[in-house]
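Hello again, I could really use a second opinion on something today. I've dropped the whole record in just underneath, so have a look.
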Amino acid sequence: MSAYNMRAGSEPNELSSTSTWVRIALGVALIIAGAVVLGDIALATVISAKVIGAVAVIAGIFEVVHAFWTRGWGGFMWQILLGLLYIAFGVTLFTQPVAGAVVLTYFLGFMLVASGIVRVVLSFKLWQEAGWMMLLSGLLGIAAGFVILTGFPATGLWVIGFVLGVDLVFHGLAWILYALVPGDGAAIQRP
């Protein structure tokens, strides 16, 4: 593998500017999506629970079908059980999105703390490529996780939508900053 600096080279300069504009467009789209979600966080929480429920049902169905296709692999009963658990979890979330959102919020609190810690650690490794934004994102993730866990279960009805909206906005800002940092993203890997 070798790296080519697309900005310094005379050939595909167009690829570098296109990727910069694509990153900026992605950032703007994520910020707009975050603003829409923040417009009605309770609705976003219920919709998120329903979408997660539907995806869990589909995953469970595929798990059960896979168990029958690969019967000779062993673990047939475990695959069936896992698939049925996915289906039950998904149906519960889809039919009772408010109760499901409360449970998901609890797990989200733990996941945000863990994810925030990982982002803080990575920010120092990637400090030259706008790592300060990742540090800020990680600290906000840890703080959000603690807010969720200390206010549980009252936070269950609004947190998922709020966190999703804020995360989308910060993710969009990070993409825009990544696109604007001089020299970043200019090196691409070629086989």
Residues 16-47+97-182 form one domain.
